[in-house]
Design a protein that fits this description.
This protein is an alpha+beta fold. The chain has a domain at 84-192 and 267-362: 2-Layer Sandwich (Alpha-Beta Plaits), CATH 3.30.70.3460. The chain contains eleven helices and twelve strands. The strands form two sheets. A nine-stranded antiparallel sheet has the order 6-3-5-4-12-9-11-10-7.
Length: 389
Amino acid sequence: MAGRFSLADVKPGMALLEPPVSVEDPVNAAILRVSEDRVAGFLRDPLGEIARQSGVELGTVIARIRAMLASGTIRRVRQTLLATNLAHGALVAWQIPADRLDAAFDFMSNEDPFSGHVVVRTADPATPGAKYRLWTTLKVPQGYAIEKHAEYLRQAVGADAFRLMPAKRLFALGVGHIRRRGMEPGSRAEVYADVRDTVLVELSALDWQILVALKREFEIDEIVPDLWAPRAIEAGVDLETFYGVAESLAARGVIGRFSTFLEHVKARTGGERVTRYNALFHWRVPEGREIDAGREIGRHHIMTHAYWREGGPEFRNVNVMGVAHGLDKDVLLAHKAAIDEHLREAGIEIAYSNVFWGGRSEIKPSEISPVAFAAFHRARGNDPDSLRG
């Protein structure tokens, strides 16, 4: 069967014994420092690129990734998309009665394919917005109104209110937990973070045909040297057409990276954790300085996400947000203090700042297919046309 891995595929040096699956194993760590977020765009041979950058032989890279995926150390392997350029998206904060919070979390995690990151967050009770405990990312396909789908979700889970916070600009996007371990507070790049716009890109029917096959998660037996040939067959095109469209999508800014996503929330066997704390930082900077602040914040290596989002009066009008992960809460606060000091040194006033800490969470990619969106609402008795923007 196409995509199957057999002894005939074994290359010299490829491990046949069960390999270690811990992130603490030095070979695994070398692979993960690259495979989490260092393989940008679309590559015809992403596994070969991981081998090249990590210095680990290709056969071992394949064997280790397969083993970590089978054990649950790696949650998923997939080609990511820059969905902010493909669909209407927002970070959403939900105000939900305490007795409905767990059920709402379950619904967003299990029932709504358009909700991505689902996180229960806490802040000081006196903090503006502390009543907004559930935070999600939300995407809806082009042609539909995100506000209407959010209202459907509000009614479905019994939320009292929600705040949509679409990204106006992106400054950092890349979750590399292993390479960030031991990072000193204040560690930052020599240059400003790039600014990514969120203008939607229109796709053709062929683009979508390729994209749907391209973005599907890889099963264990699909982690093979020739990753894309089976996906071309799945898309119903020859391999060169598949490559050409995928590279065109990358050139148009809608392809993210080839990535292995670690199980970074739940403890693994033996209590091993990739990370323990998930901090959502908020800043309010002067109007007109949002991009300046974002480019400074995005320079800091600890930041996995940084973006310009408007928190509104619910969150004391913060306008720049970012996420950092770590094993030690005090160390994360030290990183935050270093960023604050850096902003002041750059002449950017911080009128207000806060931290929302993540607790229970479920991380999954958001569906962005218009066909899937229409089918989802029809199955629930809703007219998809009534949700158009």
